[in-house]
Amino acid sequence: MKTSFYHYINFIPMNKSLISFFTVAFVMTIACGCTAQEDDDHTPNIISEKYEPCCSDASEVNFELTEGFNVYIPNVFTPNADGINDYFYPIYDTKWIGGVNITYFVLYDSDDHSKRRVIFHRDWFNPNNIKDYAFDGYSQKEGNRKLWEGQFWYEIWISIPETGQIKLKGSACSVVCDEESAIFKGKKGCFYPAQVTDTFKGDNKKSHLEKDCFK
């Protein structure tokens, strides 16, 4: 006959309080069944305060400003200089350059107008020179170049001959490739620069092409 846990414990000289403690501990261990929490796709549950707001707000990413003219503004990018999703900027068909101009491109550290500070700005944007005109993740806040981590807010002014000035605004996130960035493995609602389509719209069903960032 097999000896149960309860039979075994009775052979050990212990007081009743210790027996109760070990019995409860054993039952709790069986109920838990694991030592590390994981979700259904075996991705560890990571708590990240700086990345929690990312991809979760109602900011639009696809804008059709006039017939046939689409602007895609990703809501997340990874400035780790690996050649993939390294820059944040509005993406659109450069054939429209002659008639369409981005006259103001500014990023803030807050959506509170009374407290926000500029972390990056361009008075004009050249889509054919991304390296010099797009946001590479380094904040210009207070004169210091520091890699920005987490959420920021943008305002982009676009001048279109038929309609005049249009302001686009929303939020996005800069993801430095650290331990906390693994939260993006299964994070919903994220649109990366690499997920632009041939019609200059974002499609997060496409691969974001990240390989090394979300370890």
How does this model look, in words?
With 215 residues, the protein is α+β, with helices and mostly antiparallel strands. It folds into two domains: 1-33, no CATH class; 62-195, Sandwich (Immunoglobulin-like), CATH 2.60.40. Helix content is 13%, strand content 23%. It has three helices and nine strands; from the N terminus they run ααβββββαββββ. The chain has helices at 5-10, 16-32, 130-133; strands at 62-66, 69-72, 76-77, 101-108, 118-122, 138-139, 146-147, 150-160, 164-174. The strands form three sheets. Strands 3-9-8-4-5 form a five-stranded mixed sheet, with no helix packed on it. Strands 1-2 form a two-stranded antiparallel sheet. A hairpin with a 3-residue loop joins strand 8 and strand 9 (164-174). It is globular. The chain starts with a helix and ends in a 41-residue tail after the last strand. The model is unreliable at 1-14 and 18-42 (pLDDT under 50).
